[in-house]
Amino acid sequence: MPRNLTYREALNEALAQEMERDPSVIVMGEDNAGGEGAPGEDDAWGGVLGVTKGLYHKFATAGLRPVAELMFVDFMGVCFDQIFNQAAKFRYMFGGKAVTPVVIRTMYGAGLRAAAQHSQALYPVFTHIPGLKVVVPATPYDAKGLLIAAIRDNDPVIFFEHKALYDLTGPVPEESYTLPFGEANVVREGSDVTIVTLGRMVHTSLAAADELAASGVSCEVVDLRTTSPLDEDTILESVENTGRLVVVDEATPRCSIATDISALAASRAFGALRAPIGMVTAPHTPVPFSAALEDQYIPDAQRIVNAVKPVAEWRR
Predict the structure, then answer these.
(1) What pLDDT, in 10s, does the model give residues 101-128?
(2) 118 in catalytic set
(3) b/e for 16-28, b at 16 or more Cβ within 10 A?
(4) What pLDDT digit, counting tens, does each position of 184-204 carry?
(5) How many CB atoms within 10 Å of residue 92?
(6) Among 50-64, 74-88, 237-251, whose mean pLDDT is lowest?
(7) Could you give the CA distance from residue 102 to residue 24 in angstroms, rounded to a whole number?
(8) Residues 6+ apart with CB under 8 A from 293
(9) Which segments of the chain are extended strands (E)?
(10) Which of 149, 148, 66, 76 is nearest to 101 (CA)?
(11) Cα separation, 108 vs 117, whole angstroms
(12) Are strands 169-173 and 2-6 parallel, antiparallel or unpaired?
């Protein structure tokens, strides 16, 4: 039976259940077990925001399916060669005989006043690289099911957790379960405009869709869940049904998920489009440390509403 868990608790439960199921699954990363000589549970933070709390004292640190925590995705520079030049290419370079069952969990996103070096949304960088699977869950339910799927996958998976979602609560089954990669979730059905989004922006887009519904605009909201593999069929089917598309993406606009989805729709569903494609993204700047500027930086519901309305009103 589903209970209400936070996004953080759902991730912790997924890790614990997989380590109990398979002794080759290990967790590694900075601050996962507290400081050296930690007296026990009280001193073991379980990562900078507590996701792995309690695991160190239950499981041995030996195995072959690592779940490594990269504390902030902004720190990718210190290990990027091993990810994109090694792990991502092993299966291809060795003719399918080599597997690299590693999950790299990492935090992303603005909104916590963490400044430019701790707040970026860099999932487009990893999505660009063949051989990597990229997961961006939006809810506690998706976080648990997608993390378990990632741990069981034989390819390298980059698992993005938005730091502003850790306290989000939602129903999560107690039993172990997986969600398939490459299957987007239509979280709201609609007939006038398709909104394609991911991660934290799913919730912002749903808030915008509620406001738009009050003014007579029906929005279908598609949560990508994974960007590689990408569920092109669900995106295109929705665009063909509505004839209009707005993409909402917290990343900066150049070479982003927003531009990729826009290009997909323009090349594969051009005949169905009845309006220009809209995009709502962060500006092409570093994330500000100023609270007032950071609030302007992050796409909000009003910006989405302002982008959707002219698309909905366009007549072709």
Answers:
(1) 999 999 999 999 999 999 999 999 999 9
(2) yes
(3) bbbbeeeeebbbe
(4) 999 999 999 999 999 999 999
(5) 11
(6) 50-64
(7) 11
(8) none
(9) 2-6, 25-29, 65-72, 103-108, 133-135, 157-162, 169-173, 185-188, 193-197, 219-223, 226-228, 245-249, 278-281
(10) 66
(11) 10
(12) antiparallel
Active-site residue, from 57, 118, 162, 203: 118
Helix (H, G, I), strand (E, B) or coil at 25: strand
Is residue 38 pLDDT above 60, yes or no?
A: no
* Token pair recorded at residue 26: 């290990």
Domains, the chain, in order of start with CATH, read 4-171 (3.40.50.970), 185-313 (3.40.50.920)
CB 17 within 8 A of CB 174: no
Distance (Å, whole) CA 74 – CA 118: 6
User: How are strands ordered across the β-sheet holding 133-135?
Assistant: 25-29, 65-72, 103-108, 157-162, 133-135, 226-228
How many degrees, rounded to 5, is the angle at CA 46 between CA 40 and CA 47?
A: 140
Check if the beta carbon of residue 7 is closer than 8 Å to that of residue 160. no
130 is written with which tokens? 């063949």
DSSP class of residue 286 equals P
Residue with tokens 């962060």: 282
Positions of E strands within 163-281: 169-173, 185-188, 193-197, 219-223, 226-228, 245-249, 278-281
Query: In this model, does residue 53 exceed pLDDT 90?
Result: no
**Angle (nearest 5°) at CA 114 between 113 and 119:** 110
**Closest by CA position to 181, among listed 237, 211, 224:** 224
With H, G, I as helix, E, B as strand and everything else as coil, classify residue 14.
Answer: helix
Distance between CA 149 and CA 183 in Å, rounded?
13
Residue with tokens 């660009």: 128
